[in-house]
Design a protein that fits this description.
Distance between the termini: 40 Å
Oligomer: single chain
Strand content: under 5%
Structural class: mainly alpha
Largest sheet: none
Radius of gyration: 18 Å
CATH class of the largest domain: Mainly Alpha
Shape: globular
CATH architecture of the largest domain: Orthogonal Bundle
Number of domains: 2
């Protein structure tokens, strides 16, 4: 029996499960990863300026720390609009927990949006690779930020943030690899999971969380 192609947007448990079933059909090694990880929840957030700012807020922070900082940032008047953000001082933004670098990155994005040079709606017309290139052309947006934005804000089905340390650790353990893959090696591994790479990333993030909680490893 052939598998039914799932909905492209990863915005429900059912949609993600459909993509994971397709993945298992492509790479049977992922069946054990799926069974151990259990149901994978969607992680879709608001697109545009708010979404990219939230991704930047969470860079190199634990989930708990990022959530605490964001809860303060989103209450700052004007913080969630690119034009009004430009009127905020560095002191005001950093008082919420943002670093100076993150303040300047979000400001550069706000300036680009205000000037019409950065259009998040345009991403809907691009492939994953084209969308990453479009985003990283703007100051302060690196590959990881672009890829995570595409996954969690745009719901893109075929993105894999190969530079994410948790994913590298989870893939090593889940696939029984002798060594943690390099970023280049991870890109090669994930290429075989196209066009469902985002579901693979969500699956391995879930696998990492379950393994860490149950056995205290992968930290």
């Amino acid at each position: 029996m052939s598998l039914i192609e799932p909905s492209p947007r990863l915005d429900s448990v059912e949609a993600i499960a459909g993509h994971i079933e397709m993945l298992v059909g492509i790479d049977p090694r992922l069946a054990a990863v799926r069974d151990f990880a259990g149901p994978v929840q969607p992680r879709i957030t608001e697109p545009g300026f708010v979404g990219i700012a939230k991704v930047i807020c969470g860079q190199q922070l634990s989930v708990a720390s990022a959530r605490a900082i964001w809860s303060r940032f989103e209450l700052l008047p004007g913080a969630l609009d690119p034009v009004s953000y430009l009127s905020l001082s560095e002191e005001e933004v950093r008082a919420t927990g943002f670093s100076g670098g993150k303040f300047r990155t979000v400001r550069a994005i706000a300036e680009a949006m205000a000037a019409g040079a950065l259009d998040f709606d345009h991403l809907e017309t691009l492939t994953a690779e084209e969308a990453v290139r479009y985003l990283v052309a703007h100051k302060g947006i690196g590959p990881w930020t672009a890829e995570v934005y595409l996954m969690f804000c745009a719901g893109h089905p075929d993105v894999f943030p190969a530079g994410d340390l948790a994913l590298l650790k989870a893939v090593q353990h889940g696939l029984g690899l002798e060594a943690r893959p390099t970023i280049k090696e991870m890109v090669g591994i994930a290429s075989h999971w196209t066009p469902h790479r985002s579901a693979a990333a969500l699956l391995f993030w879930r696998y990492f969380a379950v393994m860490r909680d149950r056995e205290g490893i992968l930290l």
